[in-house]
Design brief:
alpha/beta, 6 helices
Amino acid sequence: MNNIKLLILDRDGTINVDSDEYVKSPAEWTALEGSLEAIAKLNHGGWHVVVVTNQSGLGRGVFEVSDLNAIHSLMHQKLAEHGGRIDAVFYCPHTPDEGCHCRKPQPGLLEAVAERYGVSLEGIPVVGDHLRDMIAATSVGGEPHLVLTGKGAAFKGRPLPETFPPATRVHENLAAFADFLLAREDAALLAEQAQAAQRN
């Protein structure tokens, strides 16, 4: 049993606007509408939020670690302005052809989160905009949630291909996911209270 309420988010296309040319500097980082407010709302509901992100632009030499750190400093700053926070950011710097264990859909980054927090990822929500996020989630027993922003926008108004894990839940955006998760928690609490009342 996990002692903390932990959830894992992808970054590009989930929290901020994605770019085929990579997000290379703070000037190129733009939060998706409602995403920062959604993270703050989850925080206020007691959830610890961790980001797990592929950043192959590092391995390709498109930007430097200092640029990535500056981007994340801006992200933390903007979140703080909305009363939210991200506890940690885990990233893979490798290109797809390097065959690493950390680049999603491989589970290495998620395993690093589990090790850092000393928890099992069984049932932990994992949110992203790409098939590889869903595969990584299920490979560690996590609960896959696809948002229809970023790359996920391609699936608006149509069923997911069979390549997606069958347990994948679909949400319009991160704000819709946050509402879903908090509502599910409230419903579970009410059910527990009702059962306790019946026992008494």
